[in-house]
């Protein structure tokens, strides 16, 4: 990378699970403007606190060249913009590009000749050049690939994972011209110790990202369907998977609730684009239907087990341990534990949810769920271990059963305990 490139100022648009680690790492070697529309988020970061728990106060302190702002006019000091806003789906399971379009408008207002805009948000192939670039051109009055340029480098952040972090995960890069592709690649190579992979085009990089999580979604859907089948056969799914796993090329997927900002969302971006082109995906959407139905399946299995023990379901109390979409992480986005809560409520069950990792205010605001800090003892007719947080792993099944009424059902969704220690699991 040339010395001129080294001194260019970066602006990171969106300081969530993806943007903040990126801003911190780049700010160790170059000026970085960290921008977010959430003023409370900015205030907490300036005070040295990251509520996502991805970045420690010490790591924030090491980012010597990083300044935070919620004032979009401050972005005009940058020459390279990296957009890391979320790309959710709406209630109809269609891509919601609103955050991406708004971020593009924000960048477009400060875009200058020679600037580069890089997108990291997960999208369908073509979104950068077909949806974002026209916004940049319209707002800035500049011409794409003449006055300004674009790149795409899909995020691969795994929230809560302390082993696979930003710098140790190989980064796919791309650019709108060969020269810009090389510039973008070298930019990321300056911080990614695992190396980079320069894709042939922006569309190739976009497609590569969206199929990463689609592949995982389908593999999990397969084992979820197997779990349903094996349950009807009276077989322990975990025992079957452990036996099959003795073969060198058997993939170690496990059944469960598929939530989060990636696996349960990204396939819909791909299927949306396919349907626009007149192709109606079969396998991908079948996997989505299976995984989206697992919350109702879990609730149904618990209710059946309660009935077998002659427990009155209507009016019963159930304790769910865990609300976040994965273990050891405060991320509540698209958590499917809420599907279990809603389904049980339809049976007339009163549900308490306990999760020390989750933010109680966020749980209430996003899902209307009030978290309990100290679950009652001997009070619940059903207990579901839903998320494998370390604090739950450290407790044995007998300890969890202390919360159960004299007659109760313990359901172990994560297969943390020996098969005979719980009453049922996936």
UniProtKB/TrEMBL annotation:
Residues 319-419 form the UDP-glucose/GDP-mannose dehydrogenase C-terminal domain. One of its GO terms (biological process) is polysaccharide biosynthetic process. GO terms for molecular function: NAD binding; oxidoreductase activity, acting on the CH-CH group of donors, NAD or NADP as acceptor; oxidoreductase activity, acting on the CH-OH group of donors, NAD or NADP as acceptor. SUPFAM superfamilies: 6-phosphogluconate dehydrogenase C-terminal domain-like, NAD(P)-binding Rossmann-fold domains, UDP-glucose/GDP-mannose dehydrogenase C-terminal domain. Coiled coil: none annotated. It holds the Pfam family UDPG_MGDP_dh_C. InterPro entries: 6-PGluconate_DH-like_C_sf, NAD(P)-bd_dom_sf, UDP-Glc/GDP-Man, UDP-Glc/GDP-Man_DH_C, UDP-Glc/GDP-Man_DH_C_sf, UDP-Glc/GDP-Man_DH_dimer, UDP-Glc/GDP-Man_DH_N, UDP_ManNAc/GlcNAc_DH. Gene3D superfamilies: NAD(P)-binding Rossmann-like Domain. Keywords: NAD, Oxidoreductase. Belongs to the UDP-glucose/GDP-mannose dehydrogenase family. PANTHER family: UDP-N-ACETYL-D-MANNOSAMINE DEHYDROGENASE (PTHR43491:SF2). This is UDP-N-acetyl-D-galactosamine dehydrogenase. It comes from Cereibacter changlensis.
